[in-house]
C-alpha cells in the first residue's frame, strides 16, 4: 500500500497516511470524511536550506567545518 498525503477540509490539517489506492480515509484528528488526496513527492528532495543550516551550526559548535565548502572556510570565524 502506498503512502499518500491527505488534507482535511474541516480542520485544515495535512497528513501522510498509508492506504490502499482507491480508499479515502477519515481524518485522524477530527474524524471528518472530507479528506482531499494531495500529490506527493516520489522521493526526498535531499538537502534543504534548513538541514544545511542545522548541520553547519552543529559543526561550528563541535569545532569543525566539514559541512562548509572549501571556498567558504576562510570567511568563517570560529
Mean pLDDT: 77
The main sheet orders its strands as: 2-1-3
Q: What is the count of β-strands?
A: 3
SSE class:
alpha+beta
Order of helices and strands: EEEH
Largest sheet: 3 strands, antiparallel
What would your notes on this structure say?
This protein is of the alpha+beta class and 78 residues long. It is built from one helix and three strands; from the N terminus they run E-E-E-H. It has one helix at residues 49-62, and strands spanning 3-8, 14-18, 35-38. The chain is elongated, with a radius of gyration of 20 Å.
Summarize the structure.
Helix content is 18%, strand content 19%. It has one helix and three strands, in the order βββα.
SSE layout:
Blueprint: E1 3-8, E2 14-18, E3 35-38, H1 49-62
What characteristics describe this protein?
three-stranded antiparallel beta sheet, 18% helix, elongated, 78 residues, alpha+beta, 3 strands, single chain
